[in-house]
Amino acid sequence: MGIYDSIENFMKTFMSRRKEVRKVNALREEMLDINEEIKEQIYLIGQFCWKKYYDGEYAPSEGDQVYFDNIDRCNIYLSECSILLDECRMDGVKERNAIEDDISRRVTKRKEDADKRKVDREAEKKRRNKEKEDLRIENAEKRRIEKAKKERMAKEDAAKNARLKADKARVDAEVAAKGLQDARKLAEEKVLSVGEHEATKERDAVEKASKRAQQASEKAKKLEEVAQKLEAALNEEA
User: Fold this and answer.
1) Rounded CA gap, 186 and 39, in Å?
2) I need a labelling partner for 40 at 20 to 30 A (CA). Which of 88, 118, 165, 173 fits?
3) What is the structure's pLDDT at 80?
């Protein structure tokens, strides 16, 4: 029970008891007044006559009957006041029990509401954490896909550039091979026309053309291997 509930319970119980005390004191004062009236009536008729009347051994005269009637009336009222006194005390107890029950119900209700709010907060926290985790996973997946896409594009560009270089090197090798053929043909013609000793320049040209053709062929072969490896890697990933 919280401090405010304790204060409210104390104040309501205090007010209930004070109300009960006021009612009880008022009834007691009335009962005291009635007892005094009874004493006065007995004094008027005499203790001896009253005892005989109470025991059923005396019948008062018509003139004295009013005193005895007053005493009977007071005794009846005293009995009623005694009953009211008990009822007042019982009502006070019931009222205070009701106050306790009401406070207890409200405390229980507040505890249940607090527990429900706690459960709701925990559920909301879990929901938000799940949303954050799902968003984190989603963003990570997007970044992974974007990274893979960029890597794929970079590999495609590399394969494309390698293919272009290989194709260019192949064309250069073909040109170099054609140059070698032309140089050999020219040298052969020179030898036939002037003799082998006079064809030195052409032979040098053939040697140089042969070196160029060999270098171009080797370069084209290497670049072709690189291009094929890059293209094969792309095909495997696809």
Assistant:
1) 170
2) 88
3) 86
Cβ atoms of residues 53 and 68 within 8 Å: yes
Domain ends where: 139, 163, 189? 139
Q: What is the pLDDT of residues 157-174, one digit of tens each?
A: 988 999 899 899 989 888
Q: What is the pTM of this model?
A: 0.45
* pLDDT exceeds cutoff 80 at 9: no
For residue 109, the model assigns a pLDDT of 87
Domain that holds residue 229: 147-237
Residue 38 CB: number of other CB atoms within 10 A? 19
Please check whether residues 15 and 130 belong to one and the same domain. Answer: yes
Using CA atoms, how far apart are residues 190 and 192, in angstroms rounded to an integer?
A: 5
